Every structure is written in C-alpha cells, then in structure tokens.
Amino acid sequence: MFTAAGFEKTFAYIELFKQGLVCTISLSVLTVLFGFILALILAVMRLSDVCPFRYLALTRDGHLREQGFLATLSRFNPIRFIATVYVEVFRATPMLVQLFIIYYVVFDGVDLPSFKLFGFIRFDRFLPGVVALALNSGAYLSEIIRAGIQSIDGGQTEAARSLGLSQMQNMRFIILPQAIKNILPPIANEFVTIIKESSICYTIGVQEIMYAVTSIKGATYRIAEPLVIATLVYFCLTFPTSKIIAYFERRMSRGDKR
Question: Among residues 36, 63, 134, 157, which is most buried (max CB within 10 A)?
Fold first, then answer.
C-alpha cells in the first residue's frame, strides 16, 4: 500500500533518481548513435548484390541454369546472408539474454577501466550495457533504414548511373538524403523505445532509474512508492519526446503534400 511515510522515505533518496535519469539519457543517446551506425552498415549489406559464384549460373555451353544446386549457389550472397542472420537472431531472442551474453560472456575477462562517468556511473558496467542495447537496436533500425532506401524510386538510381555516378556516390548523394527524411520518425520512436528498454540494464548494475528503485527498496524496504516515482520519471521522459516527434512528423508530412 502507498503511504505518506513511504513517499517521505523515498524522497530522501531523490538524488538516486537524478543520477538514474542522467544515466538513462546517456544510455539512450549512445545506443541510438551507435545503433544507427551499425544499422546503416547492416542495411547496405542486406541491399548488396555481391554474388561471388555468379559464374555458376551459366552452363558450359552458355545457357542459364534455372534450377538446381549450382543455380542456387550462383545467387548466394554471403554479405547479405551474414547481415540477415544477424538481424534475425537479435530480433528473435530476448533482450535480457543478449545483455547477459554481452556482459557475462563477451566482456568476461576484459579489464575495462573502472572510472566513473559524471562521478557515479561505473564505466565497466555502463559500456557493456551500451553495447548490448546498440547491437539490439541496430537490428531493428536496419530494417527501418532498408525500408526507407527501398522506398526511393528506382528510376533515380538509373538516372544517377546515366550521369556517371558510382553506386557509392548514388547512395551518398541521392538515395540516403531522401531516405533519411522518410525514416526520421521511426528512428525517433526507436529512441523512445530505448529509453524504456534501458531499464533492463539495472540487472548488471548500471545506475539507471530502476537501479535507483532497487537501491531504495533495499534501504527502506518500500517498493510501491519508488516504483510510482520511477513511472513518473519515465513518463516525463517519453511523453514529451513522443509529442515532439509527432509534431515534426506532421510538419514533414505537410511538406510532402505541397
């Protein structure tokens, strides 16, 4: 049950929530930044057309194979295959499992610096949390970016080729600038999702908002009041952000209608 005394005890540790807020925002910003870079690489890999065994598509007399093992092998794209496996694995497995694998397996035995960011965030726990969140976010963002790139009319690529632009120049100067406009709202929504999903990092000792809740619970033996305050903090983070995203989305859609 909620009690005035319980809230009074909880507010005595309000500094922990302030630290958790700073940590949560830092986690979210870095996750989206590194996740976007990874997602861009994955999206390009999934859209690549690198088939090293393409020559197997033709028979010795020059006819095109339509079926069979060699025909399938000729269409095999190892770069696309690797990116697809990565995306499917990270989208099909729980975030908690991924976090534990990164922290307890990948970083096991790695001697990370033990300094504290902002004077209270332990870097040796913060970095694995960022890596795990970014790897997971990259899998989802890559699909958003890929859909944005594929939404651009293919005729623009043909026009770029006729002007003598390379595939890289076409992607950099023509396709990506238009695609980014289409994918900005989903990417911003992913930022809101990351703010909420970052709460899972308390399980490895990252000092975010839920870590503050567990610390206060251990000190006061109260859980209801800290959870209420944590809910309000998350709401104050995500609700204004969602409204700002919706505002810019409406502005961008009005520009498309002109």
Answer: 134
Q: Using alpha carbons, select from 199, 146, 183 the residue that is nearest to residue 27.
A: 199
Phi, psi of 121 (to 5 degrees): -90, 115
The number of distinct structural domains making up the chain is: 1
Task: Note whether 40 and 143 are within 8 A (CB).
Answer: no
**Domain-located, residue 257:** no
- Taking the CA atoms of residue 133, residue 134, residue 138 and residue 140 in that order, the dihedral angle to the nearest 10 degrees is 20
Q: What is the CATH number of the domain that holds 125?
A: 1.10.3720.10
The model's pLDDT over 58-111, given as tens digits with 9 standing for 90+, comes to: 777 777 777 777 778 778 889 999 999 999 999 999 999 999 999 999 998 888
Q: Which domain holds residue 20?
A: 4-252
Long-range CB pairs of 193-197, under 8 A, 24+ apart, other chains included? 194/27, 194/28, 194/31, 194/32, 194/35, 194/133, 194/137, 195/24, 195/25, 195/28, 195/234, 195/237, 195/238, 195/241, 196/234, 196/238, 197/95, 197/133, 197/136
What's this model's pTM, rounded to 2 decimal places? 0.86
**Structure-token match 């994918």, residue found:** 183
Calpha distance 215→13 (Å, rounded): 9
Look at residue 119 and tell me if it is in a domain.
yes
